[in-house]
Amino acid sequence: MSEPSPKPFAFHLDHTDGAARTGRIETPRGVIRTPAFMPVGTAATVKAMMPESVAATGADILLGNTYHLMLRPTAERIAALGGLHRFMNWKGPILTDSGGFQVMSLAGLRKLDEQGVTFKSHIDGSKHHLSPERSMEIQRLLGSDIVMCFDECPALPADRDRIAESMQLSMRWAKRSKEAFGERPGHALFGIQQGGLEEDLRAESAEALQEIGFDGYAVGGLAVGEGQEAMFGCLDHVPGQLPVDKPRYLMGVGKPDDIVGAVKRGIDMMDCVLPSRSGRTGQAWTRRGQVNIKNARHADDPRPLDADCTCPACANYSRAYLHHVFRSNEMISGMLLTWHNLHYFQELMQGMRDAISSNTFNAFEREFHAMREEGDIPPL
Description:
Elements: E1 10-17, E2 20-27, E3 30-34, E4 36-41, H1 51-56, E5 62-65, H2 66-71, H3 75-80, H4 84-88, E6 94-97, H5 100-104, E7 110-112, E8 117-120, E9 127-130, H6 132-142, E10 146-148, H7 160-181, E11 188-193, H8 199-212, E12 216-219, H9 228-235, H10 238-241, E13 248-250, H11 256-264, E14 269-272, H12 274-280, E15 283-286, E16 289-292, H13 312-316, H14 319-327, H15 331-357, H16 361-374
Parallel strand pairs: 4-5, 4-14, 5-6, 6-10, 10-11, 11-12, 12-13, 13-14
Antiparallel strand pairs: 1-2, 2-3, 7-8, 8-9, 15-16
């Protein structure tokens, strides 16, 4: 897999419908249609999926995880083997997170100071240090197309002083990340806004990031326990604090109704492990809501998960079969349900892109919620 020519990274805003936006992010490895959902390939793989299968669902970009890859197999080893794209056989763009969120979640296994975070590996207990400079180095070795600056993400709820202190540290780290990133034509660096649910702290963070200057701006520190109502309340004002002409990325979101609500409020990019994790645990997401395939009601049901879905699970297999292979702990269960879930999430994104382009997003949203309220098809 040859290295792409260093073309500039660019964002084009094509259409708006209210606050909802559709556009294109151009990278040397391909165009990302927005709003975009990024499947998560934590350890250089989207679990239970081949890379070409992920592409077949309509995904334009994957997310990789700095923390996990730096520990195993190491960024240096991946670089020596040709970079993350070649290593995992993914031809499209890859966004890598900074490792900050995973490190912060280690609680008693880490020590935080101005320079960065010292932590013990969850794999073997070995000691490591992650700083803005080291995070940029790791992401450069991986060869990611979109690099995230290093930040701290406190769990919510937290008191205002803790949130303010953390946000200000993240802004200092953002400046160091930008300096360490340097000039890398064809690669982009995104800043991460913090500030919890505090509108003024979010505004302060957005101003600090724009003063530094980034290719895109992420909304961090949400979907960490605050609940959907609080998250949407924050998103009612956060996108307006960020530049109109740059991509807006909401990190770690989410469920289909989270995604629709975020796009409605002006978000362009999202990621979440939910589609693949749910698939491995017998949960399917459909336009009618969630289906628990392990339930006995599916054991004799010859119908597909979703008669209108064209994924392999729905086109070729019955609910009865999916129930059987899940209850039998067969690997094909996780493969088929994950494929279905990723297909549905990408279908949802395409539906929103089309609705925004035709100024029918409100109608799309009403139908989305109405179908979910109807619920799953009744048992036979």
